[in-house]
Amino acid sequence: MNYFSDAFSAAIGLVFQFDPDVYEIVWTSLKISLIATFFASLLGVLLGIWSAISHFPGKHVLQHLLNTLMAMPTVMIGLIFYGLLSRRGPLGEFGLLYTETAVILGQACLILPIIMNMTLVAVQSADNRLMLTLKMLGAKSYQQIVPILSELRYVILAGIITGFGRAIGEVGAAMMLGGNIQGSTRTMTTAIALETSKGDFELGLALGLLLLLIAFTVNLMLQLLKSKT
Question: Which domains does the chain have, with CATH numbers?
Answer without folding.
Answer: 21-228 (1.10.3720.10)
